[in-house]
Amino acid sequence: MSIFEAILLTVITASTPLVIAALGELVTERSGVLNLGVEGMMIMGAVAAFAGAQMSGSPYIGLLAGIGMGALFSLLFAFLTLTLVANQVATGLALTILGLGLSGMLGEGYVSVPGVRLVPIVVPYLSDLPFIGSVLFRQDLTFYLSLALVFGVSWFLFRSRAGLKLRAIGDSHGSAHALGIGVIRTRYLAVMFGGACAGLAGAQLSLVYTPQWVENMSSGRGWITLALVVFASWRPWRVFAGGYLFGAVTILQLHAQAFGIGIPAQFLSMLPYAATIVVLVIISHNRRTTLINTPASLGKPFVPER
User: CA 45 to CA 33: how far, in whole Å?
Assistant: First the structure.
């Protein structure tokens, strides 16, 4: 395997959780809900997936456990913000803090325990093709799910009737409610979908990226996904491209350290987060483009009786 091929494979592995979690958050925000608890849902999905795989011996059971935990955690957020009309920003931050602390407590018994790895799916004949075979046809299930999510979310938002209703709610929940669209029900489903995607992304971390449990192993990826949604201007295909851009930055700084490049390790480690800040600053200068796709009701509470 060439060095370039090896780097590309690690970039794919690092980018997959970013793409999955960002697509889930994109759907949530398209409905007008701002969930800053992605980091908490992701780390809870990671510990649930690791524990589920350990107890059952099957990484696929672990994946389901991660998805279920992410959806359950997001349901708590939805109840607080949509039913009790709590502040979305404060609730999302509290959810992240809760997830980081609770995952550390639940995963204490799994520290240094060998993990159950999600093995790649080998496509016969196609996986033997030079270069492209190992890159596209010898990957784990989460990679193929990320591709399916890009196509599925894009079709749902811009080609389906339900997606049109969801975007209408995000743009003007008052008008959507007047037309008889179930605003709260739709937002509940959107938030749970986002949580399930965050849980799946967390499961990828503990079953594929680093098949073991390490406290705080999400390492700020939840915050990167939030920036990624803005970077992509709430467009699924841009999320896919941006996810691989951020994933490449993450992996290249690791390879730079391995090759002994004379740059302080601390500077290289901060590159993914510095890139996130730079991207957001650049986007803020083109405010007109950002406002075109930004859901007008994003972060605004909705109470039908008012």
Answer: 21
